[in-house]
Amino acid sequence: MHEIQKHRQLLTRYEVPSNLAETLQLLREYGSRARLVAGGTDLLLELARRARPGVDVLVDISRLPGLAAITQDSDGAIHLGPLVTHNQVIGSPLIVEHALPLAQASREIGSPQLRNRATVAGNVVTASPANDTISALWALDATLTLASAGGRRTVPIRQFYQGVRKTAMHPDEMLVGISFRPLPETARGTFVKLGLRRAQAISVVHLTAILDFDGDTVRRASMALGSVAATIVSAPEAEAFLTGKTLGDGVIARTVELAAKAAAPIDDIRGSAEYRQDMVKVMVRRALQTLHAGTEREGWDGRPVMLWGATSGHFPAANGAVGSFDDTSVIEARVNGTPIRAAGGLNVTLLDWLREAGRVTGTKEGCAEGECGACTVFLDGMAVMSCLVPAIRAHGAQIWTIEGLAEWGRQQGIRPAGAGALDDLHPLQQTFIETGAVQCGFCIPGFLMAGAQLLEEQAQPTLAQIQQAFAGNLCRCTGYYKIIEAVERAAERIERN
Hints:
Blueprint: H1 2-5, E1 13-16, H2 20-30, E2 34-37, H3 43-48, E3 57-60, E4 70-72, E5 78-80, H4 86-90, H5 93-98, H6 100-107, H7 112-115, H8 120-126, H9 132-139, E6 143-148, E7 151-156, H10 157-160, E8 161-163, E9 166-167, E10 174-180, E11 187-194, E12 205-214, E13 217-226, E14 233-234, H11 236-242, H12 249-261, H13 273-293, E15 323-325, E16 331-335, E17 338-342, H14 350-356, E18 376-379, E19 382-385, E20 398-400, H15 405-411, E21 414-415, H16 427-435, H17 444-457, H18 463-469, H19 481-493, E22 495-496
């Protein structure tokens, strides 16, 4: 583990509070030295790259009770708690019905494993203009509630951003709530994105467009453009032009030109400024044509792939796992049904801890960035990328790795099926062998974990659902066809108690 630590920004404390008040007190105590960690999918990478100078304390809020709710109050406003994940948004009928662009944006983020931990609040406070959910919340005129030990304040999201990764939030504050009005019945909205690949892609350009109609006439327009300026930006000239107009080819063409004027893109590794400017036009045209046709809900899967099993996307409360940890603190977890106790987990990931302390080496590190899925494990019932989970988060948790997959399956009531089936293999492992889905084998543990969780959720998954489940898993050998065939064959043969 010491070799691993050399390459990471070293932490001195890891705090796991039991409630919100304690969290805010810790932020007051540590000030700019501390960072909150919920999903950690950005923060852990920044710490690994030593991009957070002066930060040596993490305050883990991922298991605080009562903060992962999506609710609607008596006045109709929709509220997201600070621990609401992107998968919870995707799975919320309230959001899908009344704030579709936010659900669409959440679905474009990362992979199911990442979306099981990554929070909407984290996306907001990270403040990258490429963060997908921000444009949806911007177009929805969301309001943010910030809390500190000294009290609370509200800030409109359009006043929250002060530059690239700069916000109006103070070091001792926590984003504790996001609220917005549901779209009226007369309104339609959509989110569109351009990335360099189908999944796991940072936006080159993205936007949210919301139009409120009076018959065929646009009564109000709201447009938010992302990844084309230092922050999310509106397109006020385009919005004003659309108001009072009936959508048609000429109106859409003029709106496209006016929207492009709001963009001030830069050249970067994902695209040139000129390319982005052209793509703004393409994406705005696509969004307006979709809203004009009323087809914004086409392609939305009513059974989205979550890879969260029977958890409903909620991690259990920390309970006895709260406290203050340093590098001498012992982490206790159940791994594949066996208790494991080991110290030295302060500056390592769950992946490192499992391999070094737990001696379960089937889980692989392919990228250490949450890009390849080789490190997929089940954490308290949900598939996650273990390379982006702090090791101390394992304290008090239940973890399953590839070594325990067959036993996990048996506990879910799955029995081996088919001629020659082996008791010590999960049925999906058996079909991977039969179809020749394994070549070098490095990526296979992650595929098996994701595939097994998919089959637990969807007994007969469609091809599209299999592809969604594997959106976070990369393979350089097989071309994926045999892997998909193995899942389809396992779905046909699995028997359940």
